[in-house]
Amino acid sequence: MLPDGTKLSFVAQTPYGWTDWMAALQVVSQSAKAVGIDVTTNFPQAPVDINDVQTGNFDLALFYISGVGPDAPWARFRDMMDDRSVPPMGQNAFWDYNRYSNPAVPALLDKAGAATSLADKKAAYAALDKIFMQDVPGIPLMYRPLLFYEFNTSVWTNFPTAANPQGASPQWYIDVLRDVKLK
Question: CA torsion, points 8, 41, 96, 149, in degrees to nearest 10?
């Protein structure tokens, strides 16, 4: 509740059928209600949800951002905080769905992307991280692996397993991670 007595109330949405995300929002709703914030859930069909997110028509949305791997902080910061070329609310955006804006972010993203020294890269990311933690333009809900999948060996073989960590991944872009060993 706000100091003036206004009760906080939000609708949290994610696509219907994305059952793990739906369950996560139900936990968010229950947890928020336990501290006096009314969060109801909404599970529209995926095309409706995606349009709502891209046009900014949401209170809270469980949605993905690119660069979810631990080696890709630039893409995560860009997708959450870079307002360059992002259209106004009501028009389709493909990143920065909440239209967050901070004038320091673009230069820091450019610095991080162009840095040739590890020290310069770390400094830019530390500054971006500080802005993110102060302004909270999004709430990270869960850390997901970059790729996850299931496979059927009735036709194809040589998928990565604990016994065969160097097997061929079903995703074409995993080849860049060929030397990464599964634990």
Answer: 150
**Local structure of residue 169 (DSSP, 8 states):** P
At 66 the pLDDT is 66
Mean pLDDT of the chain: 85
3 state SS of 60: strand
d(CA 43, CA 65): 19
- Please name every residue paired with 3 in a beta bridge, in sequence order, or none if there are none: none
Phi and psi at residue 19, to the nearest 5°: -60, -35
Tracing tokens 């006096």 back to the chain, one arrives at 36
The alpha-carbon radius of gyration of the chain (Å, integer) is: 20
Strand locations in 87-171, DSSP E?
none
Amino acid found at 96: D
- Residue pointed to by tokens 């995300």: 21
Which parts of the chain register pLDDT below 50? Answer: 174-183
Cβ-contact 172, 147 below 8 angstroms: no
Closest CA to 112 of 70, 73, 66: 73
